[in-house]
C-alpha cells in the first residue's frame, strides 16, 4: 500500500530544474499539463498514479490522492520508503527536510518541526525500533526512528525518545534540541527536571557521554558513584548520570565514615579533589561538631581522592593532624596516638585556658593522652620546641618534642628541660603576680602546683619566744617539710636555699639546697626565730 503524507512546511531543497523546460506535452501519452497541473498518461491514455516518472535528470511522483497530479511539497510513502518532493515536484536527494510536526506534544515531542534526511537515492534514512543506530552525516552522528524522523533530546537504546519530565533518567543518549539532533559526546550541560533533587526541580546539570554517545552513570548498586577520569581529572556520576559536586559518598558503607566520602568541587567544576589541601564546610552527615555557623575547615586529600583521617601526617615538610572526619586540627589539643595514628581526641573542641588549668592541676584526667599544639586558625602546622601559646587572651610558655617522626614529635614535654619543669608541655612557672609557687614533683619530674593558702597555719597563732623563753612576737608560720613540696620561681626553675623570699600574698618561703620547702611564714623576720635557727644549725 502506498501512502502520501501532506507536508505543511519545507526547508532546503536540492537544485531545481524547471519542469516546464524538461517535460514535453503529448496529446495522449507522457507528460501533459492541464490547467497548470502536470499529469502523466500511459500508452493506453490512462493517468499514471502512485508511481515515479522521470523527466530529464529528475524524478516526479504522480499522486493518487490528487487524481494522478504531480505531487509538490510532500513526503511520499512508497511501499514503506519515505521520499520528499519539493515545490517543483522534484524528488530531493542528499539533503535535510523539515516538516511541521502534526503530532506535537508539549511533554514527549515538543518539536515544532521534525527533520528527515534524504539520501542519494531519495530515500529517507531510517532507524529501527530494536536499537538506536547512528548515521554519520557531514561528520556528525544522527539517529532516526522507523518512520525516518530524526530523533532528538534524550533517547533510549531502542530509538525511543525519552523527553518527558523524568524519563531522561533511564535514557542512554542525548541528541540535542529538536533543531540540532546530532549525537552528543563529552561534557554536556542539560536542563532536566528532577523531583528528588535537593536544589531546584528544574535545573541545569552536567553529564558526560562516551565517544559512542552512551551516558556515564552508576549502574552498580554496591557502589555509591561511578567515577571516570577525564583529561587527567576524576569525576563522579550518580545513578541517573548527573555529575556530582561538593561532598559525596564515593564508596559504599557507612555514610558517617569520612573514608567513604570525597569532595568534587563546585557545580561548574566537579573534579574530585586529589592530592592536596582544600577548605570547605563539612558535610552535615559526618561533621563531628555542631557546625551551625557553617564554618569552613581544612582537609587534605590523598592522590586517590581519599581523605586523610585520624592521622598525624607529614605534608611538605610539616606535620598536621586530622580528626576521624578528615578535618585538620588546630590549636591546643589532647591526643591519644600510636605511631602517628590518632586513636582518640580527648575533646572535640580546642582546649581553652580553663580546661588547660584543669588538666595541669589534675582536676581533669588525661592519662594516656599528650598535648599538642597545631597553630591557630588556618595554620595547623605542628609546633615543636619552645612555643608560646595564646589561650583566651592569656599567654603560656610550652615545650614540645622536636625529635622523632609522627610517633613522638610534637608531644608536650613532661619533666625537666634545661632545669625548667614542664607538664604536658606547659612550663610550670610561677606567674609574675605569684612570684613563687609550691609544687609537688613526682618520679617523672612532673610538677603540680599547690595552692599556697593550704600551706598556712589555720586560725591559731604560733607563739615565738626568745632564747630566754620570753614571748617575742605572735606570728603565723608552718613547718611544711613533711609535705615534700618544692619552690618554683617565675623562670620555672627550683629556688634553692631560699631565705624568706616573698610570694604574691606577702608570705615568705624558706627552702633547702634541693629547693624543698621547709618553712612558710607571714613574718619577714622569721629567719631570726629560734625555730629557724635550730633548723639552720642542723642543716
Can you describe this structure in just a few lines?
The chain has 539 residues and is mainly beta.
Question: What is the first-to-last residue Cα distance?
Answer: 131 Å
Structural class: mainly beta
Q: How much is the radius of gyration in Å?
A: 46 Å
Summed over residues and divided by their number, the pLDDT gives a mean of 89
Shape: rod-shaped
The fraction of residues in strands falls at 35-45%
User: Which range best describes the helical content: under 10%, 10-25%, 25-40%, 40-55%, 55-70% or over 70%?
Assistant: under 10%
Number of strands: 41
* Biggest pleated-sheet summary: 4 strands, antiparallel
Number of helices: 3
Give the uncertain stretches in residue-range form.
1-27
- How do the strands line up in the largest sheet? 37-41-40-39
Explain this structure.
The protein has a four-stranded antiparallel sheet with strand order 37-41-40-39, with no helix packed on it. A three-stranded antiparallel sheet has the order 1-7-8, with no helix packed on it. A three-stranded antiparallel sheet has the order 4-5-6, with no helix packed on it. 4% of the residues lie in helices and 35% in strands. It is mainly beta. The chain starts with a strand and ends with a helix. The chain has three helices and 41 strands. The N terminus is likely disordered.
Amino acid at each position: 500500500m502506498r501512502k502520501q503524507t501532506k507536508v505543511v512546511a519545507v526547508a532546503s531543497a536540492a537544485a531545481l530544474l524547471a519542469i516546464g523546460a524538461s517535460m514535453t506535452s503529448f496529446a495522449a501519452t507522457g507528460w501533459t499539463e492541464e490547467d497548470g497541473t502536470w499529469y502523466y498518461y500511459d500508452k493506453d491514455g490512462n493517468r499514471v498514479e502512485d508511481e515515479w516518472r522521470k523527466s530529464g535528470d529528475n524524478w516526479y511522483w504522480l499522486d493518487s490522492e490528487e487524481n494522478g497530479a504531480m505531487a509538490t511539497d510532500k513526503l511520499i510513502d512508497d511501499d514503506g520508503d519515505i521520499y520528499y518532493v519539493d515545490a517543483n515536484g522534484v524528488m530531493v536527494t542528499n539533503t535535510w527536510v523539515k516538516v511541521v510536526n502534526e503530532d506535537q506534544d508539549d511533554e514527549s515531542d515538543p518539536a515544532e518541526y521534525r527533520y528527515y534526511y534524504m539520501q542519494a537515492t531519495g530515500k529517507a534514512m531510517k532507524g529501527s525500533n530494536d536499537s538506536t543506530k547512528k548515521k554519520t552525516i557531514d561528520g556528525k552522528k544522527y539517529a532516526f526512528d522507523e518512520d525516518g524522523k530524526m530523533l532528538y533530546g534524550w533517547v533510549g537504546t531502542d530509538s525511543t525518545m525519552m523527553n518527558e519530565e523524568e524519563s531522561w533518567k533511564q535514557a542512554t543518549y542525548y541528541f540535542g534540541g529538536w533543531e540540532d539532533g546530532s549525537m552528543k559526546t563529552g561534557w554536556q550541560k542539560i536542563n532536566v527536571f528532577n523531583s528528588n533533587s535537593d536544589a531546584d526541580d528544574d535545573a541545569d546539570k552536567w553529564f558526560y557521554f562516551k565517544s559512542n554517545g552512551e551516558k556515564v552513570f552508576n549502574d552498580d548498586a554496591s557502589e555509591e558513584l561511578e567515577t571516570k577520569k577525564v583529561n587527567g581529572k576524576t569525576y563522579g556520576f550518580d545513578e541517573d548520570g548527573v555529575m556530582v559536586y561538593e561532598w559525596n559518598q564515593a564508596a559504599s558503607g557507612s555514610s558517617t565514615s569520612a573514608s567513604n566520602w570525597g569532595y568534587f568541587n563546585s557545580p561548574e567544576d566537579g573534579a574530585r579533589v586529589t592530592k592536596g589541601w582544600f577548605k570547605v564546610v563539612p558535610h552535615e552527615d559526618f561533621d563531628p561538631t555542631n557546625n551551625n555557623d557553617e564554618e569552613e575547615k581544612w582537609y587534605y586529600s590523598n592522590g586517590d581522592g581519599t581523605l586523610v583521617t585520624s592521622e598525624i601526617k607529614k605534608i611538605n615538610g610539616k606535620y598536621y593532624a586530622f580528626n576521624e572526619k578528615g578535618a585538620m586540627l588546630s590549636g591546643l589539643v589532647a591526643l591519644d596516638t600510636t605511631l602517628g595514628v590518632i586513636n582518640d581526641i580527648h575533646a572535640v573542641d580546642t582546649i581553652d585556658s580553663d580546661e588547660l588549668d584543669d588538666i595541669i592541676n589534675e582536676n581533669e584526667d588525661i592519662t594516656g593522652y599528650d598535648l599538642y599544639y597545631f597553630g591557630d586558625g588556618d595554620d595547623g602546622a605542628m609546633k615543636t620546641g619552645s612555643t608560646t601559646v595564646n589561650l583566651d587572651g592569656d599567654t603560656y610558655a610550652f615545650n614540645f618534642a622536636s625529635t622523632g617522626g609522627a610517633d613522638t614529635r610534637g608531644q608536650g614535654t613532661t619533666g625537666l628541660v634545661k632545669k625548667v619543669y614542664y607538664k604536658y608541655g606547659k612550663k610550670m612557672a610561677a606567674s609574675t603576680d605569684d612570684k613563687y609557687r609550691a609544687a609537688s614533683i613526682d618520679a617523672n619530674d612532673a610538677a603540680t602546683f599547690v595552692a599556697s593558702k593550704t600551706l598556712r597555719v589555720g586560725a591559731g597563732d604560733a607563739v615565738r619566744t626568745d632564747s630566754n623563753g620570753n614571748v617575742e612576737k605572735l606570728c603565723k608560720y608552718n613547718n611544711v617539710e613533711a609535705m615534700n613540696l618544692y619552690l618554683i620561681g617565675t623562670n620555672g626553675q627550683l629556688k634553692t636555699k631560699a631565705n624568706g623570699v616573698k610570694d604574691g600574698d606577702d608570705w615568705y618561703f624558706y627552702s633547702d639546697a634541693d629547693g624543698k620547702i621547709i618553712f612558710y611564714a607571714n613574718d619577714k623576720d622569721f629567719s631570726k626565730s629560734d625555730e629557724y635557727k635550730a633548723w639552720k644549725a642542723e642543716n
